[in-house]
Design goal:
- By secondary structure, the protein is an alpha/beta fold.
- Helices cover 23% and strands 27% of the residues.
- The protein has a single domain (4-195), classed as Dihydrofolate Reductase, subunit A, CATH 3.40.430.10.
- The protein contains six helices and twelve strands.
- Strands 7-4-3-8-1-9-12-11 form an eight-stranded mixed sheet, with helices on both faces.
- Strand 3, helix 2 (47-51) and strand 4 (63-66) form a beta-alpha-beta unit.
- The longest helix is centred in the N-terminal third of the chain and has 11 residues, at 28-38.
- The radius of gyration is 17 Å and the shape is globular.
- The relative contact order is 0.26.
């Protein structure tokens, strides 16, 4: 059975997703959501995004790094397979030379997550590899002001996501407010799930 291929990302004001390979905001609620959604599943990253994480590899997930700029890069096995042949996370990461190879490598999972960055999202969406999108919409007056002051400093999502998901089903994802961590700033987040 084909796995469900999911993209997960957050978009802030003016379609912004990053600044110098880093997140331009710090949202405890979004970190919580990200962990809840991806826990136990393979996560596929571009190398710049993976090594730009505050702490890596991500725990309780199989971390796969795609080196798009190195054709023919070898697979570095830092994981192992159980008796049923399923790849298990062992604390390292796997380096694979293409997105398709990475997807095939973990095709025995029910879900696979595409976790960025910009060029990886663009490739997967343009080639219609994605079945489900988990989108966090981030709002912040402070961030909006910073972006307005120096717009060229920020990285934006590579496509018009609202146009792309036209006709898809959209559901809000809610958490019990009692279990969500409190933010340290004016950031507000909304969690959406789009399915074909």
């Amino acid at each position: 059975m084909k796995p469900e291929i999911c993209a997960i990302f957050a978009i802030g004001p003016d379609n912004v997703i990053g600044i110098e390979d880093k997140m331009p905001w710090h949202s405890k609620k979004d970190f919580y959501h990200y962990k809840q959604v991806t826990k136990g599943y393979p996560c596929i990253f571009g190398d710049r995004t993976f090594f730009g994480l505050p702490k890596y590899p991500l725990t309780d997930r199989l971390n796969i790094v795609v080196k798009l700029d190195i054709p023919g890069a070898s697979v570095i096995q830092t994981s192992q397979k159980d008796k049923a042949g399923k790849v298990e996370y062992t604390g390292g990461f796997i380096e694979i030379p293409s997105i398709e190879t990475a997807i095939n490598f973990v095709s025995n999972y029910s879900k696979i997550f595409i976790c960025g960055g910009r060029s990886v999202y663009k490739y997967c969406l343009e080639n219609k590899l994605i079945d489900t999108i988990y989108l966090t919409k981030v709002e912040s007056e402070d961030l909006s002001e910073k972006i307005a002051q120096d717009p060229d400093k920020y990285i934006r999502f590579p496509i018009d996501i609202e146009k792309y998901v036209k006709g898809w089903n959209c559901d809000d994802i809610f958490y019990d407010p009692a279990i969500l961590p409190q933010e340290d700033s004016d950031i507000m987040v909304k969690f959406l799930k789009y399915t074909k």
